[in-house]
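Entry 14. Structure prediction run on the chain below.
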Amino acid sequence: MTKILQRNLYREVADRIGDLIEHGELAPGERISEKQLCDRFGVSRTPLREALKVLATEGLIELLPNRGARVVRLTLKNVKDTYDLMAALEGLSGELACQHISDAEIAAIRQLHNTMLVHYRNRDLMPYFQVNRQIHESILAASNNDVLQEMYSNLSQRVKRVRYSKQMTERYWSQAVKDHENMMAALEKRDSQLLGQILRDHLCNKIEVATLAGVIDTEDDKSVANS
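Output returned:
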């Protein structure tokens, strides 16, 4: 019983640090202060260090030999490479979802979509992102492919800062909503090829948004690695 509780503790710590990274409280390239995080979360260094190891495997931080850890800088190449894989998986999830999804599941996604549109009209960015994420997760779940969902989730953790950046141009936001309108139409028609293509293309403009927000490091990969 003690071991299970301990495992849950470092997973919870990892999730909280991940939230700090996602929301920009821990910036790209920033060194991790173990003492500050231990004090903040009220934990000892043992579960904190286990949490850092987990986050390193998830691509959110990098462990530095004898120098602690720091938040990973997302380079343009790294994000593009990750998005290539995510786009393929998300497109496949849409194709599979059209084969397996029920009318009730489509209705639930339509309701989420309508809620997302309300947040868009009110310019409520963070609630918009939350519902947006639920829509994509619902389509992934409807694919009925556990391995696909696991792989996608692992990749998504790496670029969460990019996908849900607090800065978004009006042009991009408007295009994203149009994509979702087309996505819903294809899903309701169960047009697997069309939905798959829309989902693959949907990630294309997110790199531009992240670059504007300063989330992606545009320096050369070698200079980043040696910094």
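Residues 76-100 form the longest helix (25 residues).
Filed with the rest of this week's runs.
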